[in-house]
Amino acid sequence: MIKNKLKADFIQIYGEREEDIRFYFSPGRVNLIGEHIDYNGGFVFPCALDIGTYLAIRKRPDNEVHFATLNFPLTTHFKLSETIHNDMKHGWSNYPKGIIKAFLDLNIELSGMDLLYFGNIPNGSGLSSSASIEVVTAFALNDLFHGRLGLLSLVEMAQDTECDFIGVKCGIMDQFAVAFGKEKSAILLNCDTLDYVYVPLNLDGYRIVICNTNKQRGLGDSKYNERTQECESALKGLQKALEINYLCDITPEIFEAHKGFIDQAIPLNRATHAIYENDRVKKAVEALKENNLEAFGQLMTASHYSLKNLYEVSCFELDVMVEEALKIKGTIGARMTGAGFGGCTVNIVSDAFIDEFKSSVSAHYLERTGLKADITIASVGDGVKII
Ligand code: GLA
């Protein structure tokens, strides 16, 4: 369906030509637990969704690159011979521009091309719309221009683009999850070694429910970089006593014995979150394997309060959404997901309580915040692919 529409619109915008149009899809992701620890060398537990970014692409005979999307009126173009830089005026197309620059920097030969995107991840919702655009573009260019880069190299390229071209010093979780996602599974990823395993999401009688606060992230990006710096400062303190590369290299016990080496309160709180969150991920995955969903849910909720109180990346709207969710008897876990400062919460809710959850949480959320919530049941899908 979406592919047919994309094809018709592509031809309407760019015209008919002999060259084939190719189609790709990359999902968004929701992180179940393990927040703000990918850049601290910890474990994360995300899964890919069935919503994401669609891309139709066709080579051009010249060296011009044209971008359009069905989501906004903005279109842009540039020549491959120009210096490619991040330009605020170009909005969302800075993501694919950054990827094209990365291919050129690797001396992979490109020709001109027309690109048309369509995304159905709500913008600024913390479900990784930017990683999804980056990864779908990298995957498509690699396929179209015979780049011969493996999936992990494409993930790293997308992460570097986000860090260096876009300027958000993110970890690898989002790009990894949208590339490597697998239907009905979450990915337990060690962000230090990049070892990963798929864990089947057997949630007998329960659903993953995503609640969008519709509070956009706003200052999120600058606050994000501030958190990575605070973690670095905490790490430096601990390195006076311990030979470690990342905060998540140590267990809570070792941390408790050495935390006195962190001499400022804020970095100490950030480190406390990171080290205990890493421990929660390991416990949560064990609980899931043992079918102990109650324990899994409790760890999710503990993660939220740690992100709120110690890491300080929640906000009023996210907290209200979590509080209201936890008032429903069938909710066994609720937390903010993604970078924070707005966006979505993720919840585990019993099938029998889904209707009550939807009506009660949205009504009380509206009453308390003046905002309309969007509540959906997550459907866990595959990673980036040709369609
Ligand atoms: C954003 C970043 C990720 C990760 C999360 C928080 O989504 O892109 O790398 O740090 O925030 O867990």
List the SSEs and their pairings.
Elements: H1 2-14, E1 22-31, E2 43-44, E3 46-59, E4 64-69, E5 76-79, H2 94-105, E6 113-119, H3 129-144, H4 151-166, H5 173-180, E7 185-190, E8 196-200, E9 206-212, H6 220-239, H7 252-258, H8 265-289, H9 293-309, H10 316-326, E10 331-336, E11 344-350, H11 354-369, E12 374-377, E13 385-386
Parallel strand pairs: 4-6
Antiparallel strand pairs: 1-3, 1-13, 2-7, 3-6, 4-5, 7-8, 9-11, 9-12, 10-11
The structure holds alpha-D-galactopyranose.
Alpha-D-galactopyranose binds next to helix 5.
Structure, briefly:
With 387 residues, this protein is an alpha+beta fold. It has helices at 2-14, 94-105, 129-144, 151-166, 173-180, 220-239, 252-258, 265-289, 293-309, 316-326, 354-369, and strands spanning 22-31, 43-44, 46-59, 64-69, 76-79, 113-119, 185-190, 196-200, 206-212, 331-336, 344-350, 374-377, 385-386.
Determine the N-to-C terminus distance: 11 Å
Task: Profile the largest sheet.
Answer: 6 strands, mixed
Which runs of at least 5 residues are low in confidence (pLDDT < 50)? none
Number of strands: 13
Roughly what percent helix? 40-55%
- Count of discrete alpha- or pi-helical segments spanning 4 or more residues: 11
Which small compounds were modeled alongside the protein?
Answer: alpha-D-galactopyranose
CATH fold-level assignment of the largest domain:
Ribosomal Protein S5, domain 2
Largest sheet strand order: 5-4-6-3-1-13
CATH architecture of the largest domain: 2-Layer Sandwich
Structural class: alpha+beta
